[in-house]
Amino acid sequence: MNEKAAAIKIDTTVRNVICAVLLVLCMIWVNTLLHLISFHENYGFFSFIKTTLTAVFCTGLFYGLSSAVFMEPIRDTAKLCAAGTAVSAVLMLLALLLELGMDNFSIYGEKELELMFFDIPKKYFYDFWTIVWFPYNISVIFMALRREWFKPMSVLYSGIAVMGMTLGGILLFRPLSNIYQIDAVLMNCITLGAAVWKYGLSEKIVHKGKAAAAVLLYGIMRILLLPLQCSDWGVNPAAFMLGDRYADYVEGIRVITSNASFLGTSGYLRNSAFAHEYLVDLNKPVLQMLYYGGWSSAIFLILLMAAFVWMVMKLLGGKNGRKHKGWLIFASAAAMLCIRVFFGLAYGFGFPYPVNLPFMSNNGSLMDGMVFTLLIICALENYRIQQAEHMKETFVRAEEILGKQDSYRVLDEDGESYECDLWDLADISAEDGHSVHCRTEWYEIDDREFCVFTIKNFLSDRKRFILEYAEQKWILPDDPKGNIQEEIMEEHKSCYSPYCMEEEVTYSDDDEDFEDFD
Question: The pTM is what?
Answer without folding.
Answer: 0.83
